[in-house]
Amino acid sequence: MKIATSILSAKSFKEKLGVIEKLNSSDTDYIHFDVMDGKFVSNKSLCIPELVKLIKASTKKNEVHLMVENPMKYIEQIKNLNVDRIIVHVEINQALNKIIDYIKSNNINVGLAIDLNTNIDYVKPYLKKIDLLLIMSVKAGKGGQQFQTQVLDKIKKIPDNIKLEFDGGINDETVKFIKFADTAVSGTYILENIEENIRKLKR
Ligand code: DX5
Ligand code: ZN
């Protein structure tokens, strides 16, 4: 399983930079950037200039998780950076097909995210065109929450060939529930002890 490390729980910009430096020389497969606009979710994290600077500081593969109402303006500013995957939410009230096609036209992989309490049927129309489905295992909007095992039921309706990523509440205990996943996102747990906890998650 691949590991994507979320830097959300590092408080300040400076702290986030420090964490990225450590992650650059770690075994994490991705750095996971959580962007929140205070509208799609009530919290805010990373304005565009900060996001750009942090991506530029990373030498790892990067994935950007957009918990925002209007993803286009973010995509526009990061499409020429070292971004392997952009993840947008199925719940946004916007022309998702257009956004997915636009990300792809920039040769960036597309992830589609579904929040904890959203019915899985909503992702069905997009499964054929996305590269990965991100299942929120907590309610989107903040780090440090507990993994919700009920999401495991939800994915029974997803065909086996779809790559899955889980995000939220993942530690050395809860990772056991998602052994079949392509990628696990973990923030709070990994940042407690970067080297050791990435190793434990990969075991
Ligand atoms: C939550 C974010 C997650 C989260 C992961 O809205 O999408 O990426 O920060 O962090 P932990 O591991 O603290 O749940
Ligand atoms: Zn995330």
Please describe what this structure looks like.
The protein is an alpha/beta fold and 203 residues long. The chain is globular and about 40 Å long. It has helices spanning 13-24, 48-57, 71-78, 96-105, 151-154, 188-192, 194-202, and strands at residues 2-6, 30-37, 44-45, 61-67, 85-89, 109-114, 132-136, 164-167, 183-186. It is 29% helix and 23% strand. D-xylitol-5-phosphate is lined by residues 6, 8-9, 32, 34, 65, 138, 140-145, 167-170, 185-189.
Order of helices and strands: EHEEHEHEHEEHEEHH
Global geometry: globular
Cofactors, ions and other ligands in the entry: D-xylitol-5-phosphate, zinc ion
Rounded mean pLDDT score: 97
Number of strands: 9
Give the distance, in angstroms, between the N- and C-terminal Cα atoms.
9 Å
Radius of gyration: 15 Å
Put simply, the count of helices is: 7
Proportion of residues in β-strands = 15-25%
In a nutshell, what does this entry contain?
Helix content is 29%, strand content 23%.
Outline the fold blueprint.
Layout: E1 2-6, H1 13-24, E2 30-37, E3 44-45, H2 48-57, E4 61-67, H3 71-78, E5 85-89, H4 96-105, E6 109-114, E7 132-136, H5 151-154, E8 164-167, E9 183-186, H6 188-192, H7 194-202
Parallel strand pairs: 1-2, 1-9, 2-4, 4-5, 5-6, 6-7, 7-8, 8-9
Antiparallel strand pairs: 2-3
